[in-house]
């Protein structure tokens, strides 16, 4: 950044909409870079974030927006949870004030190598695994984005040479120049359609924004078995070098499955690892491992380190997490399954008759693809949501026992009553959590607590 633009930014006003992790992180970075900062939240800011703002002497308000202050901004950072349709966002755009995401803002202030990971499912596991591989390989690396500590706050610390960022479509909607050196697209399935006018193609376009500013010197890693990804790539050109992964076909370049091994071929290097030794099992996890290992290979991590890291990785919290076995019934927390496709993976991996806890805020779900699995594996359904009618309509003819509950404690009590020896109780909601819980983590933790209290 030249001195001229630094001087301009000293006078620049940034307004941050949303006082959560991403908003407060952006506020800290913006203040450090000489902006006048104002944080405005339509809801209530959590006490821990209020304290950070007060300690950093950053102006804020909550439970409403002061439009006069907001419309005096040079630029606005919108937290990912606020939809583009929100009246304040629409007004800002109408008057020509730039609205960006935290990712866009923070990326301007770091020279670090960025690995950006998006996808409908698997992005948290892939991001966490990639972070482990790079950290174990001795790189100075941080994990952020849609997971853990905010990217902006970590940029403000000025101590990382590499970032692994889990990126949601909402974060990508707010980028203009952001360009990761390595982009990963794990897969596509309909999700968050309520934010995309119920048009799947809008959501797909949003995911592909991850590569829009990449150059020939960058890399795009993607699932070559995914029909929608292949379809998009056949109609659009990408500048980045393409590195596909597949469990169905052998590839000249990229990662694939051969003789029960993962094989990674990039330029003239080749890496092999037996699938049976990977710490997280299931076909979707083989793909997550392929994507992460491809990133690690590009960043010159030793093959032995990649193998050892894949063997030792135990997965992430709230993703098919085994909680407890009680009376020979296994309780599994898959609260992170906030869409149908994620729940498909979960049900597909069940080996015993399953009591399935499902429901929450439906984002335009089509449950029909679950019907064969539910028919084969599910003995009872426990609905956990305010409005369960769609679930009851979808599975009423397939499952004899469907019970409605409106709290986690009630759901677990019913599950305990319905499950017999050698059954599984699976929380895999296929929905967002906001009707009864703060977020999917809160839902998962309440599940674990209720199980431990049985």
Helical run tally: 18
**Count of domain modules:** 3
Going by CATH, the homologous superfamily of the largest domain would be: Mur-like, catalytic domain
Average residue pLDDT: 92
The percentage helix is: 25-40%
Q: What is the number of E strands? A: 20
What is the CATH class name of the largest domain? Alpha Beta
| C-alpha end-to-end distance | 59 Å
Our estimate of the beta-strand percent is: 15-25%
Structural class: alpha/beta
Q: pLDDT under 50 segments (min length 5)?
A: 1-9
Summarize the biggest pleated sheet. 9 strands, mixed
Under the CATH scheme, the architecture of the largest domain is 3-Layer(aba) Sandwich
Label the overall shape. globular
CATH topology of the largest domain: UDP-N-acetylmuramoyl-L-alanine:D-glutamate ligase
SSE inventory with pairings:
Layout (H helix, E strand, L loop, with lengths): L2 H9 L1 E5 L3 H12 L3 E6 L5 H9 L3 E4 L4 H4 L4 E4 L8 H8 L3 E3 L1 H6 L5 E6 L4 H14 L4 E5 L5 H6 L5 E5 L2 H5 L8 E4 L14 H9 L10 E5 L3 H9 L5 E6 L7 E5 L2 E6 L2 E6 L8 H16 L4 H10 L8 E6 L2 E5 L6 H9 L5 E5 L12 H7 E7 L4 H7 L5 E5 L2 H11 L5 E4 L12 H13 L2
Parallel strand pairs: 1-2, 1-4, 2-3, 4-5, 6-8, 6-9, 7-8, 9-10, 10-11, 11-12, 16-20, 17-18, 17-20, 18-19
Antiparallel strand pairs: 12-13, 13-14, 15-16
Catalytic activity: UDP-N-acetyl-alpha-D-muramoyl-L-alanine + D-glutamate + ATP = UDP-N-acetyl-alpha-D-muramoyl-L-alanyl-D-glutamate + ADP + phosphate + H(+)
Pathway: Cell wall biogenesis; peptidoglycan biosynthesis
Protein name: UDP-N-acetylmuramoylalanine--D-glutamate ligase
